[in-house]
């Protein structure tokens, strides 16, 4: 996977700030939480992975260009 351009990383950080709540839409990983699982963003790294503390206890990141989540209103 190609590293996203810096402006894309910045946009992800704006769209998914630390502390925001997200819902998982798609993740291609055998250890992925179920679709619809919610969690709290703990950061976005330099390759665009959105790191999330999932409510299920998982810490699997949402990989840019591979997986998908959406921001939701705070619970």
How does this model look, in words?
With 75 residues, the protein is of the alpha+beta class. It has a single domain (6-72), classed as SH3 type barrels (Roll). The chain has one helix and four strands, in the order αββββ. The protein has one helix at residues 6-15, and strands at 21-26, 38-44, 50-54, 68-72. The protein has a four-stranded antiparallel β-sheet with strand order 3-2-1-4. A hairpin with a 5-residue loop joins strand 2 and strand 3. The radius of gyration is 11 Å and the shape is globular. The termini are far apart.
CATH H level: which superfamily?
A: SH3 Domains
Largest sheet: 4 strands, antiparallel
Supply the number of helical segments. 1
Summarize the helix and strand pattern as letters: HEEEE
Portion in helices: 10-25%
> What ranges have pLDDT less than 50 throughout 5 or more consecutive residues?
none
How many runs of DSSP E, i.e. beta strands? Answer: 4
Overall mean pLDDT = 95
Note the gap between the termini: 33 Å
Q: The CATH topology, please?
A: SH3 type barrels
In short:
Helix content is 13%, strand content 31%. The chain is an alpha+beta fold and 75 residues long.
Q: Descriptors for this entry?
A:
single chain; 75 residues; alpha+beta; SH3 type barrels; four-stranded antiparallel sheet; 4 strands; 13% helix
Could you outline the blueprint of secondary structure elements for this entry?
Layout (H helix, E strand, L loop, with lengths): L5 H10 L5 E6 L11 E7 L5 E5 L13 E5 L3
């Amino acid at each position: 996977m190609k590293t996203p351009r810096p402006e894309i990383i910045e946009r992800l950080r704006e769209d998914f700030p630390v502390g925001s709540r997200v819902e998982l839409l798609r993740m291609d990983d055998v250890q992925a939480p179920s679709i619809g699982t919610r969690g709290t963003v703990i950061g976005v790294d330099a390759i665009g992975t959105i790191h999330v503390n999932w409510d299920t206890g998982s810490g699997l990141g949402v990989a840019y260009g591979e997986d998908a989540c959406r921001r939701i209103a705070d619970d």
